[in-house]
Amino acid sequence: MAKPLIDESRPGANGVLQVEVPARQRKEPRQARSVVLVNALKQAARRILERHGRGELVAMRLAEESGVAISSIYEYFPTMESLIAAIYEDYRNEVRTELLARIAALPAVTTLYDGIVLTIEVGLGLYHQKIRFDPGFSVRSTHYDELVRLDAIDTAEEPSGSVTEALMRRFAEEVVVPDKDKAQFLVFHALLAVSRAILLERPAYLTEKDTVKMLARMVHTLLTSAQP
User: Fold this and answer.
1) Predicted pLDDT of residue 24
2) Is residue 214 part of a domain?
3) Alpha carbons 16 and 9: distance in angstroms, whole number
4) pLDDT in tens, 86-97
5) 8-state DSSP, 78
6) In a 3-state reduction of DSSP, which class is residue 53?
7) Which residue from 2, 12, 82, 210 puts its CA 20 to 30 A from 23's CA?
8) For residue 154, what pLDDT is reported?
9) d(Cα 74, Cα 107) in Å, to the nearest integer?
């Protein structure tokens, strides 16, 4: 069970803010053998999640699927949720890297709007997969990430807006706003906040096509408005 973080410097209803910190990997593997072991655990756990669902991800089945002893599982991952968190982080990095490559490889005839649609589709798909991995984890970790974004708690910084930057650079001729740095900031944080709100409050919207189109029109208007 994740322990609450109590930050007395940021008062809440009772004078303190209590935050449930998402479960995390106990330690990083140092030796080559340990790296192989942890990778085997994550790969096996991801197969179980994708083929059979969260209910089947238990220590006994994971040990059988991965060939790793249960004691070694808990040496690195104190809970199954901490393992899911590590899997999701790897998946998120994979998706970001792939999206950057896809943006760079878009044909010359592709428009800014097309690029925005691609970016939003991939982003919403990432959140949908987060729910598929584990609905409970997706809600808890997203609540925590929102507190980080709003600076309600002190922890690691948000991921950079590298995808937004790549999108604006790829379609620089169509981006006509006078302050591009401001536009990049607004697009990145608007999409981040809206995507998280959808996951937490209207998860069905994640897979509805008109959600992508509505968000794409909003972002396209923001990036193509020449008025100061």
Assistant:
1) 82
2) yes
3) 7
4) 999 999 999 999
5) S
6) coil
7) 12
8) 53
9) 47
**52 within domain boundaries:** no
32 within some domain: no
| CA 160/CA 216 separation, integer angstroms | 20
Residue 93, amino acid: N
| Contact (Cβ atoms closer than 8 angstroms) between residue 173 and residue 218 | no
- pTM of the entire predicted model: 0.83
Domain count within the chain: 1
* Residue 162 in domain: yes
Q: Which two tokens stand for residue 184?
A: 């990049």
Least confident segment among 8-12, 26-30, 56-60, 144-148? 8-12
Phi-psi region of 70 (alpha: psi -120 to 50; beta: other; left: phi over 0): alpha
Q: Which domain holds residue 153?
A: 91-223
| Residues facing residue 7 across a β-bridge | 17
Q: Which of 101, 92, 98, 82 is nearest to 26 (CA)?
A: 82
